[in-house]
Design brief:
The protein has 281 residues and is α/β, with parallel strands linked by helices. The protein has 8 helices and 14 strands. The strands form 4 sheets. Strands 2, 3, 4, 7, 8 and 9 form a 6-stranded parallel sheet that branches. A 3-stranded antiparallel sheet has the order 1-12-13. Strands 10-11-14 form a 3-stranded antiparallel sheet, with no helix packed on it. Helix 1 packs across helix 6 and helix 3 runs parallel beside helix 4. The longest helix is centred in the middle third of the chain and has 19 residues. The model has no long low-confidence stretch (mean pLDDT 95).
Length: 281
């Protein structure tokens, strides 16, 4: 055995996820567009905004987002930048928002997007924030900005950097670059699974009157056989299941102790290690 690479469900080489902030009424239109293309999104919501002017009601969130297979995540009770406030205040921001969302929608909320900015000043530092997010059972946290053509899985789930913001004028170049990726590349490093993550705010499409950008992104990147379309949380759970595999000393036996079937490419051959089973290569 030379090389082994994770593959997404059904052996897919690529995955696509979206992550949009603030829970405005324009999320409804966005969710309807995504639904036509089978796309999934994590909507990051501040609980105090629910039902206020320009924002969705709890009934809207349930009907347009959760019932449609999307995910909701924490965006801070009052949208305060965690790196610019004292840790005790940051903990309150995250915990109050999480509790409110979970009680309102009767679900577990385990993800987050940093509100306002990821700049760290006199109030706190990254390691402090990361430590208390982990202690609060937040599994991942998306950053804002840093558009890149890397398309790699997060090395640090508390610094999940997206691929591109949808208002980037070159967004279609990012989409085309991703679509053109092939797992049979001669370079070994290019055979790692690839992830496209787009972020932004749905109200930006309304403000700029360019909903056609979202439509064009979905048309180009959606409906592809080599791509899995999932929420941020689903991608996190799947990667963690793959990382939980147990191997024999000679790597011929692979045990999957999780409840999730996971896929891998082993020297070019595709295998599925089913939940609770041991695969012998």
């Amino acid at each position: 055995m030379k090389y082994r690479f994770m593959r997404f469900p059904e052996g897919k080489f690529k995955a696509v996820t979206l992550t949009y902030d603030d829970g405005t009424v324009h999320d409804k239109r966005m969710a309807e567009i995504l639904g036509r293309y089978g796309m999934k999104c994590t909507f990051n919501i501040g609980n105090v905004n629910l039902g206020t002017a320009g924002h969705m009601t709890a009934k809207d969130v349930q009907a347009y987002l959760l019932d449609a297979g999307h995910e909701i995540a924490v965006h801070g009770a009052h949208h305060r930048a965690l790196g610019m406030i004292r840790p005790a205040e940051g903990i309150r921001e995250v915990l109050d928002c999480r509790i409110a969302l979970e009680n309102t929608f009767d679900c577990l909320v385990r993800g987050m997007a940093y509100p306002d900015t990821t700049t760290f000043g006199v109030g706190s530092d990254y390691e402090t924030v990361r430590n208390y997010l982990k202690a609060l059972d937040i599994d991942y946290c998306r950053t804002a900005g840093g558009d890149n053509f890397d398309f790699a899985l997060p090395a640090d789930w508390y610094q999940w950097m997206p691929s591109v913001k949808s208002q980037n004028p070159d967004v279609m170049a990012y989409v085309r670059r991703f679509v053109e990726l092939r797992e049979d590349c001669i370079y070994i490093a290019c055979r790692e699974p690839r992830l496209f993550s787009m972020w932004g705010h749905s109200y930006e499409f309304e403000n700029d009157q360019n909903w056609d950008v979202l439509e064009r992104v979905c048309e180009e990147i959606g409906g592809r056989d080599d791509t899995w379309y999932a929420t941020n949380g689903a991608i996190y759970d799947y990667v963690k299941a793959f990382e939980s595999l147990k191997y024999s000393a000679d790597h011929r036996r692979i045990c999957n102790p999780t409840v999730t079937d996971v896929w891998m490419s082993n020297d070019g051959a595709l295998y599925c290690v089913k939940a609770g089973e041991t695969l012998v290569l």
